[in-house]
Structures are given as C-alpha cells and as structure tokens.
Write a structure and sequence with these properties.
The chain has 120 residues and is mainly alpha-helical. It has a domain at 44-113. Helix content is 45%, strand content 5%. The protein is elongated.
Length: 120
C-alpha cells in the first residue's frame, strides 16, 4: 500500500489555524488486489431502482383512472385525486405532470357538470 502525503508550504493556509486544526492533508491510497470477495453494499440509489418504477406506474395508472372519471363526469373528488397522482407520477415524459396541473386548474370550471353517482 502506498500512502502519499503532499508537501505542505508553511505560507499557504486553507483553514484558520486558530480554530484548533493543525493543517489539511490529502491522502492517496492504492490498494492491491486481495483474495477475498468484492461485496457492494446497496446504496440508496440501488434500493430506489427496486420500487421507483413500480411507484411511477401505479401513480400513472391512478392518473389515467382520474382522466377517465373526468371524461365521463362521474366524480369531482376522484377526478382531483387522479390529477394529483398524475402530477406525482413524473415518468419519462414531462407531459403527464403538465396535464395534471392543467387538470387541477380547469376542474373547478366544470365542477357543476359532475354527478355524484355513476352514469349508465
């Protein structure tokens, strides 16, 4: 293992020495290949890949359901829920959240057209 400690000039100061620090050192380590196994711990990004696509699909499906509820004028509350979840979906295209925001803005204008029960 090689340890590199760069030379330090006494005139250069990156920190205020009066705060109790004696200096700044940069260390460079070069490790040799060992005989053990390489284990990669799962970080937050790797764990996120497990559940994030499922969440995006679920929120998108709720948004599509809300669009259908709005199209058929079945329930104002459910149309708002669908618009909110379409904003939360944030899929590959940015069009879903933009349409969800537009739906939340435009829904109050057609609120009186909704019925409280399902149409046949």
């Amino acid at each position: 293992m090689n340890v590199y400690i760069p030379p330090q000039d006494s005139e250069i100061s990156l920190v205020d020495y009066s705060s109790g620090l004696e200096g700044i050192n940069s260390f460079k380590f070069e490790l040799e290949m060992g005989e053990g196994n390489v284990n990669l711990d799962e970080n937050t990004y790797l764990k996120m890949l497990n559940w994030c696509p499922t969440l995006i699909i679920l929120f998108s499906l709720i948004g599509v359901w809300g669009a259908w509820i709005t199209y058929t004028l079945q329930s104002y509350k459910n149309a708002q829920i669908g618009a909110f979840f379409s904003i939360m979906a944030m899929g590959f295209l940015i069009i879903g959240p933009v349409l969800g925001i537009a739906a939340l803005v435009l829904l109050p204008k057609i609120k009186k057209n909704f019925t409280g029960h399902f149409k046949k």
